[in-house]
Structure formats: C-alpha cells, structure tokens
Amino acid sequence: MLNIIPKPLKAEELPGKADARGGFAFAPCEWEQDTARFLQYISPSKEVKLPVTAEKDPSLEKEEYTLKVSEDKVKITASCSAGYAYALESLRQLYVAGGGLMPCVNISDKPRFAWRGFLLDVGRYYMPVDTVKKFIDIMLMHKLNVFHFHLTEDQGWRIEIKKYPLLTQEGSKRSHTNFNHKPHGGFYTQEEIKDIVNYCHERHIIAVPEIDMPGHMQAAIHCYPELSCFDRKLPVATHWGVKHDILCAGKDSTMRFVKDVLDEVVELFPDGYVHLGGDEAPKTRWEICPHCQEKIKQLGLENENQLQAHFVGEVKDYLKAKGVQTITWNEDEISGKAPADVAWTVWNVLEKDFNKMYAEMERGRTLINASSVPNYLDLTYNKNPLKAVYTQPVTICKPHEKMVGAEASLWTEQIPTLKRAYFMTFPRLGAFCEAVWSEDMSRNYDEFLARIPAYEKLLNSVGISHTASVKRANPGKLFGALEQLWFNKVQLCWHGLHNLIDNAKVKKKYGKNIHDKK
C-alpha cells in the first residue's frame, strides 16, 4: 500500500527501499520553480542525496506524470510543469510517510476530472492573505486545481473596486456578528488580489472569483443605496441568512454598476471564469418595485423569476464578449432558466432531479458537482461524514462529458477561526480529492482509512494539527444528533423575524404605489 492521497491511477511496488534521508539532488530541468518549492519541505538528516532527474514527454496529458523510485535514483516524466508538480507532491508524501525511506515504485498517474475545486468563503469572515495562501498550498498538496474565491457577501465586501471606493471603505466592515459586540472587517487591495492569483498560477491553480448577484449584496447596497429597489440606507448585514434587499434589476444604473465592477474583476482574474452566484435572491422587493415591474413589462416577461434569468443572461453576454465563461449556482434553475452557456455549480440537487441535470447537460450546459451533501465542509460530520465524502458518485447522475468535475466548499458562517477551519476541512478534503482524482474502480474506503495515519503525518509536517480523527469524522447516531442540534443554533442568527417585520414595513410603504398603478 502506497501512502499517497489521492490514490494514483497505476502503481507497482518494487523490491527495495530508496534512502532520501539526505534529501534529493535534482538535475537541472526547465521546471526549477516547482523543484525549489518542493525542496522547502525537505529536511535532510544525512549528507548523501538521492539523485532526481526529470524528462519532458509531450505525449503525456497536461496533468499526467510518471514517477519511478529506484534504490539509487528517482525519475519523473511529464509534458509540462503541472504534471511535474503533481509528481513531486506524490514524492513528498512518500518521503514524509517513511521519514526519508521510500518504497521503490513505478507510478503512472493522471486525474479523472479536469475541474477539481476548492471554495473559500471570505465574505462572512475575512482571512489574511497569508491564510489564503496557506489554503492554496494545501490545494496543491491535494492536487486540486481550481480556487473558487467567494469575495462578496451581505456581511462584507472583500475586493477593492477603484471606481466604487465605498465598497471597501465602508462595505468591508460590519459592526458586530450575530449577538456579539465585536466589529469585523477586512478586504484585499487589487495588488493583494494580483499576488494571490499569481500565487495560484505558480501552483498550477486557476482562480475563479465569485461576485454574488443579484442577492447577497447588502454590503454593496449599504454603500450605494441606489442599487436597491427603493434606495434604502441599510447597514452591512450583521446576521446570517437570506436578505430580501437585493440589486434592483429594473434600473439601468444597476447594470452599469455590475459591469463596471466586473470590468475590474476580469482584469484581476485572467483565467477566463467569473462566478455570479445567482442564489438565494428573494423577489419580495421586485414584486412591488416600479422599476422591476416596468422592466418585466418592457421585455415581455411573465414574472420576476424570468427577470432574474434575463439579468444573468445580460451579464453573461457582457462577460462572453470579453472571453469569460459565466458560472452560477444551479439555484438559478429555480429562478428562471438561464441560457445553456451559463455553467452551473450544482449545490442543491436531489435524486429526483438527476434526470433534469442530465437533460441540462444534453442541452449543452456544463455542470460542476458542488453538492452541499456531501461536499460542504462547513456542515457537520453528522451531515457529511468522511465515508460519504469518499464514496460519493462524483458524476451525480449518469456520466456525461459536460460533468467536468467537483468542488469542496468551505463556507464560514460557523468557521470564525483557522483552527475551526482545519478541524472541519481535514480529513474530509483528503477524501474529496481522491473522489475527484481517482477512478471509481480503484477507490476503496477501508484502504483509504489505512492511509490516514500517513496523511495526518503529512498535514502535521506543514503545521496542520487541529484535524478530526476518523472516529470523530464518522460520528455515531447519538453524538451525531447532538452535534447537529448544536450546529442548528445558526438558525437563531438568521434574523428571520426581522425579515418578516421589515417586509411588512416595505410593502406598506411602497406596495400601495404598485397596486394603485395597476
């Protein structure tokens, strides 16, 4: 058994051991940056170094590699730096697991899916640049290649937009969180964003920004009240949950704001993808908004859901002209059919929806499996146990070429600290990366568990010690029920009663105008 996660496609263990306790002596190659990064993790304890050579083989796929460890040398082949970097990650795991003594092995490896993502939510809780980079390093360790950066929320706007300076001057700060009294804030300057994106690229990871719209925009509305239907001055949200004040889809000025913001975002994130969110956008304001109702009438639409579909479609066309692929959450399916060239991260699919998802792929829609069960890492181990993450059918329904991969998501409503983030992420991220990298026929849960001690040793080697044990990650019924009960306290922070009262006030003040007009 080789202590490598994710499990390689093909691996043949050979007789003998390779002694790398003195470190490695790399022959010169064109991928020196990856070599230098790898050597940062090696701590030689002897003088004799194990030779490593690398060869370029154009016949291999982009992320494919071979790794041959013999008693007296290591040989790597790859077509480009990504495959070479993944070979080094496998070599690092062998090195750490054996304390420098590695099994002789012949590995041929490549990923099953092209899209292997990790979402980091910094909208709820800001994370410093160094912490973000730590997660990017962790992604490379797990051979993940898409960093989904969730940058805007009702509770905070985290990316500098020079044309709209109030977004970070005011929108990045909230007075408190739920029922405490501590202010929270933080944002990334454009130079910091460029640094993070470059950091991703050096690790063969693309960076996908998420600017959530038309919902989850209360922080922006606080700064520029005219973005909402009724120009209401609202605070940056202090409680979790779905907010009813969203961008006004009836005002041309709102669309101008959106396009201005995305102009700057696209310049900062050059990988050709932008995620627009599109989820959790209640239509209670649009239903009584004269601007939205006039837009519905003008466009010949049937309802507010179709207005959202039109809104997303217009933004999609704008991004497409820039060579950028638009992605939304599949809740946009509920809120009116978006064009088929809008990709979906599928988060709320049930078994009864499988045929519908397959039909969408047949229409030409690209899907990414981001199913909340089991891929939301903030949810309890009772809800998403380790075994469920590992054994999931990544394709959701029948295999299709338009199902390009999957994402694990670390939402942060209940993740206020890095210690908590590590506890909820590991070992589930190890299970996820193997599910999305390795072929179904090669995955074996019990064999995966046997590699967990070496995996924990690897995590410890980079300073990650606050992880869940296998037992804790697969809780029994009683403990799991108690854990879920404690987690559900988040419902108390959703301001549901506030929404009901506020909705009544807004309807009383503004709704009569709509009724009079009708």
Descriptive account of the structure:
By secondary structure, the protein is α/β, with parallel strands linked by helices. The protein has two domains: 10-109, Chitobiase, domain 2, CATH 3.30.379.10; 115-125 and 134-167 and 189-497, TIM Barrel. It has helices spanning 32-39, 81-97, 129-141, 166-169, 190-202, 218-223, 252-268, 290-299, 304-320, 354-363, 372-375, 386-391, 418-425, 428-437, 445-450, 452-461, 470-473, 477-487, 496-517; strands at 10-19, 24-26, 50-56, 65-69, 74-78, 101-109, 115-121, 146-150, 152-153, 156-157, 173-174, 184-185, 206-213, 273-277, 325-329, 343-346, 367-369, 403-410. It has an eight-stranded parallel barrel with strand order 7-8-13-14-15-16-17-18, surrounded by six helices. It has a six-stranded mixed β-sheet with strand order 1-6-4-5-3-2, covered by helices on one side. β9 (152-153) and β10 form a beta hairpin. It is elongated, with a radius of gyration of 24 Å. The model has no long low-confidence stretch (mean pLDDT 94).
